[in-house]
Amino acid sequence: MVKGLGLVLLCCAPLMSGAHGARMKTAGAEAPTLPRTAQQTAGRKAAQAVWRQHQRDMVDALSASSSPRDWMLAALIDPVPGDKSERRERLEQIVRAADAAPNDAVVQWTAALQLDTAGNSRFQGAADQALQRLQSLEPDNAAVWLQELAKAAKAKDPVGIDQALDRMAASTRVDEHAADLMQAIVQAYQRYPLPDEDVPDDSTADSTAKGETTSPYATAVAVVTASAMPAYVDLVRACEIDKASGRHAWRARDCAGTGRLLAAKGDTLIANRIGYAVLRVSRTYTDRDVANARVFDWLWNRRAAMAAQTDAQADKDIIARVVDWIVSGSEIDATRYSLARRGIALTPPADWIDEDSPFAAKRPRDDKRYAAKRVAQSY
Q1: 168 and 197: one domain?
Q2: pTM for the complete prediction?
Q3: Fewer CB in a 10 Å sphere around the end CB: N or C, the chain?
Q4: Are residues 306 and 222 part of one domain?
């Protein structure tokens, strides 16, 4: 995952080199031609500086917009982390957006996640309010109740955890609004494109010089990966069942329902993968779950291998994958489409060994050792 994200982030700035053979002129004399590699390095640094300035200009424009969703986007896209005061200003902007758009689930979801991790009572209150709005807007969305579960876990409230698990298991969908947020980011870049005069006309630039077209899409994936995914650790911990002691045994049915919902309908690959982990730690999986996980792991591994490629098709793959994800609302479906375009099989051959299976023999042993370290913790 880290490797894939690194690839995405490398794609986020357009990499444009200077023209081959370009010369620096001094008082009536020509300076030596820079080596090709030096030209590329200088061109890339200049292009990245242009792109960062363009992002800052776009963030300023979004912040000045009349749309609360634009305020939220500006806070998420801002390319300069800044100091604590600037971080606080961005969080305040998200609070303002959430208050101004109480019926916008994407804004409320962003506020619930971003403000909950701010470590400030002022923002925690706003995060709780956003979560309450989401529960009213999307009572059938398991992702919303996952946030409620995390809140109960933080308060060491086992009854609250049980209630949240029950709501998750009864839900009909899992929507982290990843596709909605990516669409909003891509559309923002389309509204504020890089000016033509800032895109060099360089027919001899290397193959990565086409980054100005992929940047909105790659940035969308990077922002979503960094800012829109909930912490699933509390769910996994809540579903760790010890049959010998009976710890958490009463949660088996809800954990099984929640695990299968995440595995089958989660809108991100992480949600799908966590679903299988929940089935494992709750000891509620079946042979069918193992078979489904094997196909999922095959898709996961093939996608990771494809993401590591840097051939001429890579840029097109980035754009197509994001578009597919936005249209389908599902990262696993987008993955299937990407692999199919490359002619890669969507199911593993019979002799393929799933070394990463969540149900491999080593997994329960690891779970047992891990749980033993935290047995005194109340969930």
Answers
A1: no
A2: 0.81
A3: N
A4: no
The count of structural domains within the chain is: 2
Residue 141 bridge partners (DSSP): 173
88 with 221, same domain?
Answer: yes
CB 151 within 8 A of CB 160: yes
Adjacent-strand bridge partners of 266: 174
List, run by run, the mean pLDDT of 10-residue segments along the chain (379 residues): 35 32 34 53 75 87 96 86 78 96 98 84 91 98 97 95 98 97 95 71 42 79 83 94 90 98 96 96 96 96 84 82 96 96 95 89 62 48
CA distance 196 to 342: 32
* In-domain check, residue 265: yes
* pLDDT reported for residue 179: 97
CA distances from 159 to 149, 152, 153, 196, 250 (A): 10, 8, 10, 58, 12
192 three-state secondary structure = coil
Residue 195's CB is within 10 A of a number of other CB atoms, namely 10
Q: Which residue has the tokens 């995060």?
A: 127
| Same-domain status, 114 and 155 | no
Whether residues 290 and 156 fall in one domain: yes
Token digits of residue 192: 């504020």
107-to-121, 224, 230 alpha-carbon distances in Å:
20, 13, 15
pLDDT at 176: 95
> What is the SS3 assignment for 29?
strand
Domain of 271 in residue numbering reads as: 150-173+232-379
How far apart CA 244 and CA 64 sit, in angstroms, is 59
Token pair belonging to 298: 């095959």
Question: What pLDDT score does 214 carry?
Answer: 84
Residue 28 lies in a domain: no
Residue with token string 């909605």: 180
User: Does 280 lie in the same domain as 166?
Assistant: yes
User: Does a structural domain hold residue 25?
Assistant: no
In tens, the pLDDT along 195-207 reads 765 555 444 344 3
